[in-house]
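As noted in the main text, all predictions were made from sequence alone. Below is one such record, for Aldo/keto reductase family protein.
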Amino acid sequence: MAVELTNFRTLGGYPAADGRIKDGLLYRGGQIADLDQNQILYLKDKLAISRVVDFRSQAERKQYPDSVWGGVDYDAIDVLVDAKKSGVSIEGMINNAGDISQVMLATYAQLVTSPSAQKGYHQFMTALVDDPRPTFFHCFAGKDRTGVAAALILKTAGVSDNDIFEDYLKTNESRKKANEQIIHQLADKLTTGQQRALSQALVVDRRYLQHFFVTINQQYGHFENYLKEGLGLEKGFVPEFRHQYVV
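Prediction:
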């Protein structure tokens, strides 16, 4: 029987610079709270994941702690800890439901410019190169903070923009069932308008990731300069990353 995990997928297999992304090393998804034994065994034994990176806030982690297992390293990296306003948590989606598109565009800009995002993604990318091993990274829904992390990995590896956006937009199909459950659970607490707005907030939009890359170009000129000046990665980082993750 297949094991189901919300918005879970591998980055392995994408065509990259002079090859493709290695299989068995990079996995993305939504939060892994309240996993059953089969799900844990799938991550632990079948996929041999030994590192979990959690991009959620302290409040999110406290409310829905990850199900972790013996032998796994757990790294909490709150990339939006200093964000002024964000729509990446359920509370943020509801509170900003009236103008969620504008809030999300601002959030994706902050994922480029905020000190916590720069520090957090530096820590994440550096760890991948310094200690390459099966890694699962996630946030609440696995769509925004995680979507940006996946885009960083794919772009650094030399994956095409078409494939980067294709991977990003897979979230909308992958989260369809989970999003319907969230709306159903909150139905008696929300107006019809709020439910409609929350439904919109729970999906990704191509414009959001486009705005992330536009902000990079506006602030740093090009992606490679952002890796160096924005994330503080060393000059030889890209070839070393590709050496570790492209085959």
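DSSP finds twelve helices and seven strands in the chain. The longest helix spans residues 115-130. These features were considered when defining construct boundaries for the mutagenesis experiments described in Section 2.9.
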